[in-house]
TrEMBL record, chain B:
InterPro entries recorded: vWFA_dom_sf
Record-linked SUPFAM superfamilies: vWA-like
Species classification: Bacteria, Bacillati, Actinomycetota, Actinomycetes, Pseudonocardiales
Protein name (Swiss-Prot/TrEMBL): VWFA domain-containing protein
Amino acid sequence: MRLMPELSLQTVVFHEPKPGAPDSEWEDGAGYRAADPGLGRPDRLVVLDGATTAYDAVHWVAQLVGSFVGPDGPAALTRDDLDGWFGRMQERWAAQPREFHNIYAEHKLQAEGSFATFLGCDVHLLDREGPHWRGAALGDAVLFHIQGGQLVAQLPTITADGFGYNPDGVFTRPSERDRMRSRLAFEGHRLQVGDVLYLVTDALAHWLLCAAATGTDCWQEVAEIQHPRAFRRWVAEQRDNGMKHDDVTMLRAEVAAGDVEVLVLCR
Amino acid sequence: MYSQTFSRQNPGCIIFLVDRSDSMRASWGGSNLTLAQGAAQAINKMLFELCVKSTKVHDAPMYLYFYVGIYGYGLCPRRSGEGVESALPVALADRFIVPLPELADHPLRVQDGGPGARPGLPVWYEPAHGYSTPACAAFEMVGSHVKEWVAAFPSSFPPIVCHMTDGLVTDSPYKDVDLAGWARRLTQISTDHGTTLLLNAFLSPSDATMTLFPDNARGLPAPGPGLFEMSSPLPEPMVHNAAAADIPVGSGARGFVFNADFATLVKFLAVGTQFNVHDETYA
């Protein structure tokens, strides 16, 4: 019998709000849940990007992140499970008590609501079929799978010119649910020690795709970032060089041999 | 040009300039409104939509993405006579271009939503009509305030002036300059991102043929050709808005509608005023 090496996921999140904005106006979100072999639950990763134009995107994103990596998240990243989770999230959002200070907010909540792009991923390191990930995406947050310094898989399959201001996402309006279900994109790929997954929101995703297209070793560049201040400096440099002025979020998850002794969550 | 987004650092400026001459009392074909009532409803609707866009959450102040102005010419109810005046609500009546959140806090009234219904829409501008059509003097006054605004916000998207009229100008030439000349003066005022945009809506009480966002003035009766020439070519953000609303616009289309009915006026104003806000950068 061949024993599988013990694998673990080293996860770190970096984020940066829009230029000059306080952290409280960072409208992206990211989350991580460690695997629980006893319950048969894989590691779970998520990145979301709340729409600037939407109603209270910060709280919608927080609700989605908290639930997705919590006990009431979708059991598996299938169309049916995600659809059911969308429904539960919409019901919970609608049930929240709110005192409106003016009719504009009330109208915006009821007529437009909120929405956020969504990118979720389950990482199965102990699966009998071998280590692999499976992800689901709705919108233009992107997962890049890097193996040996090369991009081997991507979710969703968006190109650099495919980014816009009106992407798909998870909406609070129940009327959007059928469209959300149908627009979900799925992908998966095998993993090995040393592989890195990047889950990033659109500004960084767009920058990475453009940089990769010009032959820049962008994957090494982002792999070397180890501290929030270094990330902040790096983002500022790229903004000066044309990166879209938007919230920037990067969740990096590296497959390592052995147990992780330290989990780093950078804020 | 016209690529600047509407943000808190670089807010926009939207001005409604409405003819309040006596002929605006006419009934608007296909509706139970007068021209003056329809114009007022359309203005209030656009202002409300801008307020909603500028609102993020239920427990925080509205964001300042837009400055707004409302001007009326013809009847001046506050002065009990004829001329041009700010048509902002009473609480702001001594001002001309104000931050939208201030306007939002000072509606004249809120429409009754009906028994058990949610509150209705706020009303900032009430219909009025009387006297003649001194559009030249109106353009002069708007131009002077627009000039002050662009000096304060040189990096913003240029001001947008939405002019609604049903008649022929009665004060041209004014100070030796005709209406086209006053329009040119207005549309030469610029920010770093382009010149002031002038959109003209000619309202018609009849069922005459309507022309929306034309690229030429062929076949239009007076004052159509003159208003067409004064109207700004649609910049890309307005072309985008038109496309999103399934309104076909050709290359060279201008911000002009001739013989607009009420529904078309609302669409026309939405194309010219309803932009996504996008806080790419902050002050």
